[in-house]
């Protein structure tokens, strides 16, 4: 604490994000009491050193015994202070940090500050008074939105809502806090405890409507519903009782599996970029990107880059294709304007200054990095890379967006294999968070580091993958798809499978996803791999039959499902095709329970993931978790497949695999790594170093 005249300034300093760890709580508890007792102090300012105001409770302390004082105790003490307490905010005031701010009497923020209660994204609810104080300051619907979505808002919106009192000019929150405190002293303003305010009333039926909405949008998650319970308490109970109820609900969630899973996901996403091979290596500077191919993937990649402030030149084979690509990209940008992700002025500027299409490869010459997103054929890609190598400037990185093909073979077509890398985006590329950074044999570490830096610029999560057919994600996908096709041959329908996995937490079932992506994509891959397919593999043919009938999914109105009026409905014709295959193969079918389907899915996924880790394609189990969470719709509240496997027990997964081998001993060969871990009594997490 520092005293400047009649103002006490308490500055929290706990890099990197000023998390309220136990020492910070203890320090605040003590210094607030000192300032309150100091007769010369007329007002108190709480601010933070470094890049941000408090970004929340210290997540690393969760799951360990909680040491006093608790954050609610600290905040209650701040609020009970008989002198005005000003909270000066900058950076990101999140979770317990924002709750602490709500406990202050006046809030001033820099214009760049952001605010949020992201606890639900960690399987929690605000547990330091956030659910009780926020609806006393902002409209009830605003509190429900912020608390149940976990989203962040900017200073202007926070001011509109009544969350803060003032936006200060400049870039010094501490000075802004001091100036505000001086005014309060001059005007003899009294403390203004939030808890003394009445709770803003909800619109009639608002809580029930929110429950119904969240039951769909946050299906399977406990925290958002519990947060609504706490908010209901804010309406119905006196403040102190509401606070007690909130604490009880928070502690329940703290003990839940979902909290463990989501915090694993949080740290895994930060760990995934920590790789010895790029430690301390400066990435190349990327300002302009070339994209070859303006189809769905290429247009999405271009949009993602433009939205992140990069310049893009997109090359297509002729003028008509280039025009179509231009319209596709500007259409996606226009949608971003509609969804308030981009301002109209910025849109106009991007169109005028940052984006062009061309039919000449030579126009890609000045680009710092070029991503190829053309047809998925090795011959086509090799040709493109030969041309790119000839025109691109020295030091430009040449990246392929292939989902399966051999990046080494593609790199070999150039004189600069050190500058060649795989950047595997997921569709739609301007939305999906995952980027697999595929490191080929000769890729320079600096180029790998640039792949990770680019992902950060694009707001994506990058995972390092080695080269193999399908890399981390699609290689695992292809195994669990075979296992699910096996479940269908054994007796489940594709609809049973989709239902079971949606109930497990996937947003969509795998067969519905195939229909959305187009069944012809998987068909092309199967045909490509057919010559190398092992004759012992129990190959399910029904997907090929559907494709032969022109049933390519949604785009043709028929796939696994029928899409009359756009809504998917099960199709008896598909059941008949599957039944015919079972009969031809002499399979004696039986019904499969939802649990059996989930167990097969998980066993296949985890088994292949163990091979992917053992082969060094994924560096660690956590890289697999981050891949499946961000690119394949694996439910975040289950932490990822490897985390899930550790929780249910690797011995159980191995037992399932051994049992399933009786049905198909080609597919269900246990991965040696899984066997070793079970024999040694270890978990996947023991390999997450
Ligand atoms: C809560 O507050 C509960 C309360 O309601 C009730 C309590 C009773 N704790 O993300 P970055 C680390 S729940 C510990 O790369 P950025 C992070 O691991 C909490 N560590 O930076 C990383 O470490 P390392 C609610 C944390 O600039 C480093 O800081 N709050 C915490 O891209 C840099 O992080 C949240 O959920 C933490 N709370 O983004 C906010 N936060 O260098 C979570 C970060 O060793 N945090 N670290 O890898 C964030 O959203 C982002 O970190 C933030 C900065 C936006 C702040």
UniProtKB/TrEMBL annotation:
Catalytic activity: a (3S)-3-hydroxyacyl-CoA + NAD(+) = a 3-oxoacyl-CoA + NADH + H(+)
Residues annotated as transmembrane: none
Keyword Ribosomal protein: no
Top-level taxon of origin: Bacteria
Coiled-coil ranges from the UniProt annotation: none
Record flagged with keyword Oxidoreductase: yes
Record keywords, A-Z: Fatty acid metabolism, Isomerase, Lipid degradation, Lipid metabolism, Lyase, Multifunctional enzyme, NAD, Oxidoreductase, Peroxisome
Pfam families: 3HCDH (PF00725), 3HCDH_N (PF02737), ECH_1 (PF00378)
Annotated ranges, domain 3-hydroxyacyl-CoA dehydrogenase NAD binding: 289-464
Listed pathway(s): Lipid metabolism; fatty acid beta-oxidation
Cellular localisation: Peroxisome
InterPro entries xrefs: 3-OHacyl-CoA_DH_NAD-bd (IPR006176), 3HC_DH_C (IPR006108), 6-PGluconate_DH-like_C_sf (IPR008927), ClpP/crotonase-like_dom_sf (IPR029045), Enoyl-CoA_hydra/iso (IPR001753), NAD(P)-bd_dom_sf (IPR036291)
Main localization, broad class: other
Chain ranges of the 3-hydroxyacyl-CoA dehydrogenase C-terminal domain: 470-563, 597-682
Protein name per its UniProtKB record: 3-hydroxyacyl-CoA dehydrogenase NAD-binding domain-containing protein
Taxonomic lineage from the root: Bacteria, Pseudomonadati, Pseudomonadota, Alphaproteobacteria, Rhodobacterales
């Amino acid at each position: 604490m520092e005293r400047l005249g009649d103002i006490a300034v308490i500055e929290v300093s706990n890099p990197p994000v000023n998390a309220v760890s136990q020492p910070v709580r203890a320090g605040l508890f003590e210094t607030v009491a000192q300032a309150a007792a100091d007769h010369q102090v007329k007002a108190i300012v709480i601010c933070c050193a470094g890049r941000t105001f408090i970004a929340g409770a210290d997540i690393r302390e969760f799951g360990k015994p909680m040491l006093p004082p608790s954050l609610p105790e600290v905040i209650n003490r701040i609020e009970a202070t008989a002198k005005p307490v000003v909270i000066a905010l900058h950076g990101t005031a999140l979770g317990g940090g924002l709750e602490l701010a709500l406990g202050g009497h006046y809030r001033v923020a820099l214009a760049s500050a952001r605010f949020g209660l992201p606890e639900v994204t960690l399987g929690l609810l605000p547990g330091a008074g956030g659910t009780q104080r926020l609806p006393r300051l902002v409209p009830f619907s605003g509190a429900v939105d912020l608390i149940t979505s976990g989203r962040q808002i900017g200073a202007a919106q926070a001011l509109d809502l009544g969350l803060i009192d003032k936006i200060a000019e400049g870039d010094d929150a501490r000075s802004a806090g001091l100036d505000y405190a001086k005014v309060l002293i001059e005007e003899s303003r009294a403390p203004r405890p939030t808890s003394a305010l009445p709770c803003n009333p909800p619109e009639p039926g608002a809580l029930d409507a929110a429950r119904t909405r969240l039951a769909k949008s946050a299906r399977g998650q406990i925290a958002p519903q519990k947060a609504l319970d706490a908010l209901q308490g804010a309406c119905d109970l006196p403040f102190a009782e509401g606070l007690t109820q909130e604490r009880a609900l928070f502690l329940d969630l703290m003990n839940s599996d979902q909290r463990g899973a989501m915090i694993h996901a949080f740290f895994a996403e930060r760990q995934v970029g920590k790789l010895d091979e790029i430690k301390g290596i400066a990435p190349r500077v990327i300002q302009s990107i070339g994209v070859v191919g303006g189809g769905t993937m290429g247009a999405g990649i271009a949009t993602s880059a433009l939205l992140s402030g990069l310049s893009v030149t997109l090359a297509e084979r002729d003028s008509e294709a280039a025009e179509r690509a231009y319209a596709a990209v500007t259409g996606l940008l226009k949608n971003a304007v509609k969804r308030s992700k981009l301002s109209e002025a910025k849109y106009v500027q991007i169109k005028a200054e940052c984006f062009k299409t061309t039919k000449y490869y030579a126009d890609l010459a000045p680009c710092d990095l070029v991503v190829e997103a053309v047809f998925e054929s090795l011959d086509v890609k090799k040709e493109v890379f030969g041309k790119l190598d000839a025109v691109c400037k020295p030091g430009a990185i040449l990246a392929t967006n292939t989902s399966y093909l051999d990046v080494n073979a593609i790199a070999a077509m150039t004189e600069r294999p050190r500058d060649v890398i795989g950047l595997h985006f997921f569709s739609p590329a301007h939305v999906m968070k995952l980027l697999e950074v595929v490191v080929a044999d000769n890729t320079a570490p600096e180029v790998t580091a640039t792949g990770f830096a680019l992902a950060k610029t694009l707001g994506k999560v990058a995972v390092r993958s080695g080269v193999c057919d399908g890399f981390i994600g699609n290689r695992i996908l292809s195994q669990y798809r075979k296992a699910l096709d096996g479940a269908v041959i054994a007796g489940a329908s594709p609809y049973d499978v989709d239902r079971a996995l949606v109930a497990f937490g996937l947003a969509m079932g795998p067969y519905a996803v195939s229909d959305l992506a187009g069944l012809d994509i998987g068909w092309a891959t199967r045909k490509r791999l057919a010559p190398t397919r092992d004759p012992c593999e129990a190959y399910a043919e029904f997907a090929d039959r559907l494709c032969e009938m022109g049933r390519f999914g949604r785009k043709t109105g028929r796939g696994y499902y029928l899409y009359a009026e756009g809504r998917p409905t099960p199709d008896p014709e598909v059941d008949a095709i599957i039944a015919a295959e079972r009969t031809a193969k002499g399979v004696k079918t039986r019904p499969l329970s939802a649990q059996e389907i989930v167990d097969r899915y998980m066993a296949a996924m985890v088994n292949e993931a163990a091979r992917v880790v053992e082969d060094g394609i994924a560096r660690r189990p956590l890289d697999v978790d981050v891949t499946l969470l961000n690119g394949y719709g694996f439910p975040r509240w289950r932490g990822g497949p490897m985390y899930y496997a550790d929780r249910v027990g690797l011995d159980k997964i191995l037992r399932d695999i051994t049992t399933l081998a009786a049905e198909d001993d080609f597919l269900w060969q246990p991965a040696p790594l899984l066997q070793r871990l079970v024999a040694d009594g270890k978990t996947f997490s023991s390999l997450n170093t």
